[in-house]
Every structure is written in structure tokens, then in C-alpha cells.
Amino acid sequence: MEINLAHLGAGLAIGLGAIGPGVSVGIIAGKALEGMARQPEASATLRTTMIIGIVFAEAIALYSFVVSILLFSK
Fold first, then answer.
1. Number of other CB atoms surrounding residue 66 within 10 Å
2. Tens digit of each residue's pLDDT (9 = 90 or more) over 5-64
3. Which of 11, 13, 37, 47 has the largest count of CB atoms under 10 Å?
4. Which pTM was predicted?
5. In CATH, what number does 5-72 get?
6. What is the helix, strand, coil percentage profile of the chain, to 5?
7. What is d(CA 53, CA 25) in angstroms, rounded to the nearest whole number?
């Protein structure tokens, strides 16, 4: 069985590209919940900011997915 380096690169790109956003989403949500627990009146602002941060973190995961697709298609 032959190992294609493009397939290996695609797997590494999506695998390593998902670690960072996964960790960052956990940190973002945890810090937002701590802030909401300390100041319940600021919940709406913290929730909005948390969602925007999560969206940017997930965009990085989508970029790694696109890179893996481009590597796989070669």
C-alpha cells in the first residue's frame, strides 16, 4: 500500500487546524461564563462578544479545512 504525501498533508492540516479553535472556543466560553457569573447585568454584552469570538475561532478551522481540501485535490 502506497502512502500519498498529499493525503498525509491533508489529514495533518485538518487535524492540527482543529486543535487551536477547539481549545480557544473552550477558553472563550469559560471566560464569558465567569464574567456572567460576576456581573449578571452584563450578560447580554458578554454573550454577544463571546459569540463573535467563537465565530472568528471557527473561521480558522474552516480555513484549515479548505487547505486540506486543496492539498487532497492535488
1. 12
2. 877 877 887 888 888 888 999 999 999 999 999 999 999 999 999 999 999 988 988 888
3. 13
4. 0.74
5. 1.20.20.10
6. 90, 0, 10
7. 8
